[in-house]
Design a protein that fits this description.
Length: 214
Amino acid sequence: MPSRLEKARQDPSSMKAKILASARKIFGEFGYNDTTTRMIAKDVGIDISTLYYHWGEKQDLYEAVVVEVSEEIQDKLKEIERYVSGQSLTTRLEIAIDMMCDYLFSHPEVSNLFLFGYFNKTRHGVTLDIKMSEYIANIAVAMDLARNKKTVSIQAKARILAVWNTVLNFISGENLFRPMLSTSHDNYMKVVKDTLKFTLVPAFTSEKEKMTID
């Protein structure tokens, strides 16, 4: 029997899908603790009983959002890995930064969900960082910092976490940072990508050379 999430995916125009989309947006804006099912129901334009009928309790809906976002990120990383295969490390890094930034800027709630998960203490027991080690391993292999997902060094993991968290903060902090730079949204995206490449590409290529010498 299909899960609620599978049913929502099968019919994007269904009430389940509309509720899921609203929940993703509101959880991303307010976090788990400060989001209520009434807020989501109001955003969709339905009564609370209709939301419960389609999704059950708040935690059920949040878990579906987490699963959806986690799978999207995995798919995006696999797409990047296929796209950069055979390229130089510099090219792989530049393409990966462009593609991941494009995805996260298009889905700003994803960055917010991660950061809420890091800094807010909750009792629901569901966080997006559950699969973080898997994300790190995928990135390490794609960037040629490890031969396979089981041999990723602590140093490589830490460097990838630094990249990941820098990207999340640039995107979640746009409303704070962009006015400081006095620029448009489109130019902010470009500046973020250029800054990440300026900072990270030399660091990673230098580390790769060191690893090769060692």
